[in-house]
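Entry 14. Two folds queued back to back today. First construct below, sequence then structure tokens.
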Amino acid sequence: MTLIRRPRSTRDDRELRLWRVGRALTVTFAVAVLVAGGVFYGLVALLDFREIDSTAKLDAKTLFDLVKLSFGVVAGAGALVALVVAYRRQRVDKAGAHREATRLHTERFTAAVEQLGSDSPAVRLGGVHALAGLADDAPDDSLRQTCVDVLCAYLQLPFTPDPGDVPGHREEHHRYLAFRKVRHTILRLIGDHYRRPRGTHRSWQGCDLDLTGVTIDGNMDFSGANFSGGTVSFGGAVFSDSTVDFEGTTFSGGTVHFGGAEFSGGLVHFGGAEFSGSAVGFGGAEFSGSTVYFEGATFSGGTVHFESAVFSGGTVYFNDATFSGSRMRFSHATFSGSTVHFNDAAFSGSPMGFSGVAFSGGRVHFNDAAFSGGLVYFGHATFSDGTVHFDDATFSGGRVRFDDATGPAPDGLLASVGPSASVMVTLPSAWLPSPA
């Protein structure tokens, strides 16, 4: 998946837009006269003047007051001119400073990118840190985004697989390890910057992060990160023999893609993560060997979907997760070999769909789960013997529907439902006990 870059708006377009001096002065004088008139008439009304005494003679005191008033008007006009000129100078200086900062940023950016293309792993590492520093010091968001894009693009570049530490290939093996260190450094820097509070120095929160198709073959620490804006994509990424940590991560805005990702080895942690506003997609992802944890995660807003995902191996844990507001969809997913745990999960408000799901192998456990609100839908799902378990699940509210489901009833479901079947749980007629 390729991210579509959206235009970014900033407080200042960095374009020097100034009125002509004559126009600026005319508007300034007009505003000053209106303000002065308003103040004068306000004072007249406040002091409750009835009339102004008139005299046929112009005495010395009145003449002196008129002279002072004239000089005051001239001084005020001069002050207004100075104010307008100072404002224009400040704007020009600010625009010039921004142009200079952009020029220096471009020069440093060019040098850093050249370092990334070096044949030396050490020089490439220097380029990575230089680009990260440029992103931290960027004069505006668009330049920061450019630096992040280049780092992500480097991770997307193809690389030669490890030939192994065997005689005749040791030099290539050491070179592979050196360049892998460069990739792992980028991943570490990304995690560090997304943990920093948004709006503070060195924070990249809100930037788009395109890791589409990236191979994660080492540890990546995103624990405690905050994805509160922007688009983050791990679409088609391969998680192999690695530990990827999203523990305690907050997904509260924007869009996060794991569509088509392959979890084929290692550990992926979403334990304690909070999904409160993002659209998070695992559609078409393949869980074939990794252990993936969503234990204690909170799904309280937004949408999280696993549509057409394939659970063919490994283990996925949703134990103690809370589903209280997010829309969860597993529609047309295939459970053919993985072990998936929803033990002790609480379903209290989220609509959750398993429509068209095929439970043909592995184990899916809803043991001790609590269904107290929302709708959980297993319509048109296909069940096989011993694949799905509802032992000691409780149904105290909401609706759980198995409309047009086929195959044997899941283990423990009828015992857990008890007399509430006709009220909160809709079962196929074939699963209902025969009348005596």
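Second construct, same run, same settings:
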Amino acid sequence: MSAPMDDPTLLEHAHQSIAVGSRSFAAASRLFDAPTRRSAVMLYAWCRHCDDVIDGQQAGHDAVPVSRPQAEQCLARLQAQTHAVYQGQPLSDPAFAALRDVVRRHHVPRGEALDLLRGFEMDVAEYRYRTFDDTLQYCYHVAGVVGLMMARVMGASSATTLDRACDLGLALQLTNIARDIIEDARVGRCYLPERWLQDKNIPAQRLADPVHRAAVADLARQLIEHAEPYYVSAQAGLGALPWRSAWAVATAATVYRQIGVKVLAAGSHAWDARVSTSKGEKTAAVLTGLWRAVSSRWRRWPERPARLWNRPRPVGAAAPGAGREAAHASDR
């Protein structure tokens, strides 16, 4: 059965998901107006559920090994359930009922929902990231497209604003990858470009070895430096959002930027414990986010730099440049 549009149990489920899965996003989401917050947390609940299913974890924690055949079966079920959302078929999972609610309210395209699942498919297929452009492709699928869907929840529809929203997703995911390099390596995953590893003479299967920690810290620095222009680009899109949405987005960006700063400061010790922000730092981020949201209303922003990677366009839509043509100099 499908839950009705205003079923309070869906929202309760979503709030529980975000409270356990992401304290940073939970804090930022409180800054939205009530209708936007409702849809944002429900979209988060679906994204979190799909990630957990593929990784064999609960709310982003305590991942357990999942065999490739098992993961492929899980992915197929997620894809079928997502198609069911758009085809109006009965749903029993609250995460997918929440997605249907968001889709109906905000007209989220089916292609964007499926693009997120393609990111999980890259994990299941153990995709190899040879260049930084390949890494950005992954970042788009697991985070950039989430930025697109969240922007639609906030009422955005112009291609320019959606580009900036995608850029924030890319920046957040690059920061995540830098923070989680060693944790990911221990479960057999590596999102660093193979060319970068080759330059440092690091075998991918030995990435977590302490002997490589200084070199890994340098690779994390490169990721965080590459994230910065995407954070800047995202800032330029705040003015197109309702002011409370802009405040929430700016706050989330500030929190994640701070995580990147901490990874840089910790150097080779960045993976001794999971890097996070304190309650006081989150409070400061709320104030910084408010200032950035307000100032975005009158500040003049330059055009989005052509060198940045460009999100995929729907068939027939014009793109400012192919992502691969905008590959970074570090890949050459």
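Quick look at the second one. The mean pLDDT is 88. Residues 128-332 form a domain with the Farnesyl Diphosphate Synthase fold (CATH 1.10.600.10).
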